[in-house]
Write a structure and sequence with these properties.
Elements (H helix, E strand, L loop, with lengths): L4 E7 L2 E8 L2 E6 L5 H11 L4 E2 L4 H14 L18 H11 L7 E2 H7 L6 H9 L12 E2 L13 H11 L7 H5 L1
Parallel strand pairs: 1-4, 5-6
Antiparallel strand pairs: 1-2, 2-3
Helix pairs in contact: 4-5
């Protein structure tokens, strides 16, 4: 069983959390109402995880996440992820999603097409809803067809997704109307 550590850290959108193993980042949590809720959710998913000071590679990753959330156009695609237990299809979806640059968006259908899985846009959406690597796998950059915002499973839902897109200056015209 892999040892997991975790740390909470302050960002412009609130207190996030990062979980790691010796193989890389295993989860990034967006802010919840209280730190205690975030800790409880982490320990439920990783029962043996211990809160600790992050090792240097994890510290560097969280600093880059903070910079992105401060509005810097940071590329997080080189951050090592521990994909142990992530289904193969989800891994491929995450790989493609990580190639969407800061300030840009794509659609569930475009990701399905890039995977040579036309017609699997809904499956792409399901994989992104399970994304344990919020921000690092930028599921917030993936929109529904027709410029609609689509869903977002993190705390705050669609409001959080739109806020992240605003920070990255990636809001397509009309998305607020399409989100309604």
């Amino acid at each position: 069983m892999a040892e997991h550590g975790f740390a909470l850290f302050t960002t412009p959108i609130g207190r996030c959390a990062i979980v790691w193993s010796e193989r890389g980042i295993t989860a990034v949590r967006l802010p919840e109402r209280r730190d205690s809720e975030t800790r409880a959710r982490i320990v439920k998913r990783f029962p043996h995880a211990r809160e600790a000071l992050p090792p240097q590679p994890v510290q560097h990753a969280l600093e880059r996440i903070v910079a992105l959330l401060q509005g810097e156009a940071i590329d997080l695609s080189s951050i090592a992820l521990d994909l142990d237990g992530v289904p193969d299809f989800d891994r491929e979806v995450y790989r493609v999603a990580r190639s969407v640059p800061c300030g840009s968006t794509t659609t569930y259908g475009e990701i399905a097409a890039r995977l040579n899985e036309p017609g699997s846009a809904r499956d792409v959406g399901v994989a992104l809803a399970r994304n344990p690597f919020a921000i690092v796998v930028p599921c917030h950059r993936v929109l529904a067809a027709g410029g609609k915002a689509g869903g977002f499973s993190a705390m705050g839902g669609l409001k959080t997704k739109l806020r992240l897109l605003m920070i990255e200056r990636a809001l397509p015209p009309g998305i607020f109307e399409a989100a309604r």
